[in-house]
Design a protein that fits this description.
The protein is built from 10 helices and 10 strands. By secondary structure, the protein is an alpha+beta fold. The two termini are about 30 Å apart.
Length: about 300
């Protein structure tokens, strides 16, 4: 847990929650705050499996996964290639489109973007916009813009802070998320933040944010779950993940992104969805570890 990304504090919360859950299940647990220059824990010969609870840079972008692969160690979550692909929101979108899944239209923004032409393109794209970094999580660096000029200003600021960014059409509708556990879709959660925008504060601080189940009629819910599984499959995800989407006012689900190491805090969504089907936090974490061992067995077969 921990790491070097902007989501470091959330990662520590996730890691501590996972550690407590696994201790409750009777496992021997060692915790480690690691980074690229602090990998001593990987030398521990007594450790059977590494549970990755690092969000964002280094932990979720495939770098740590590649190190673990190179050392032949057992770890939870998706592999290096899938992690890198999902962490790049533009690359992930291309995969969603290839899988036939609906996703909001987008225009990339980088150092070579010509802003005059961009404003014209944005006018044709949508009426409102979501500006976000290509490689970040936890809504870090995300802003909503009401017109093309504001979107360009926000994109410049995003670029200067986080590198390559994207300007996505704003989809009015309901925020939903679908947890994936061992290739099964968990119950859909509808998220209703008090502020109207599910930002960092609404995710991790505001106790008034509502998380609701069974708000979508069954046939549509089934289609949304199927799309989420298609997204997971096309990216090559494994063990567990979370797919975020907007259920538009047109009753179409627009997939936004995939999270290969979703939050595992007391506020987090995958544990809430697992609890809905009777899995405690301990049950969830043990299942993820069992999935990691299952992957190892398949690789060695």
């Amino acid at each position: 847990m921990g790491g070097i990304g902007e989501e470091r504090d959330i990662s520590i919360q996730s890691g501590n929650c996972v550690a407590e859950a696994l201790k409750e299940a009777g496992l021997n647990v060692v915790t480690a705050d690691i980074g690229p220059d602090n990998l001593g824990i990987l030398e521990g010969s007594s450790i059977g499996v590494f549970f990755i609870a690092l969000h964002g840079k280094f932990g979720e972008d495939g770098q740590l996964q590649q190190i673990l692969e190179d050392r032949g160690l057992v770890y939870t979550g998706s592999g290096p290639k899938a992690s890198k692909l999902a962490f790049d929101k533009l690359a992930g979108k291309k995969c969603f489109i290839n899988a036939g899944v609906t996703t909001p239209k987008v225009i990339p923004f980088d150092v070579g973007t010509e802003t005059g032409e961009l404003e014209r393109q944005l006018g044709q794209l949508a009426e409102r916009y979501v500006v976000k970094p290509v490689r970040q999580g936890s809504t870090v660096g995300v802003t909503i813009a009401d017109d093309p000029k504001s979107a360009v200003v926000a994109a410049r600021e995003c670029l200067s802070k986080f590198g390559d960014c994207m300007i996505e059409e704003y989809i009015p509708g309901r925020e939903i998320t679908i947890g994936i556990l061992e290739n099964q879709a968990l119950p859909i959660i509808e998220i209703r933040p008090q502020s109207g925008f599910y930002d960092y504060h609404a995710k991790y601080i505001d106790e008034r944010t509502e998380f609701l189940f069974d708000t979508i009629e069954p046939a549509l819910a089934s289609k949304i779950k199927s799309d989420a599984l298609d997204c997971s499959k096309v990216l090559g995800l494994r063990h567990f993940a979370r797919i975020d989407a907007i259920l538009g006012n047109d009753q179409a689900a627009y997939v936004l992104e995939a999270n290969t190491i979703p939050g595992l805090t007391t506020h987090s969504l995958v544990p809430k969805a697992a609890a809905k089907i009777g899995l405690s936090m301990s049950d969830l974490c043990v299942k993820i570890i069992e999935a990691a061992y299952s992957s190892l067995a398949k690789r060695e077969a």
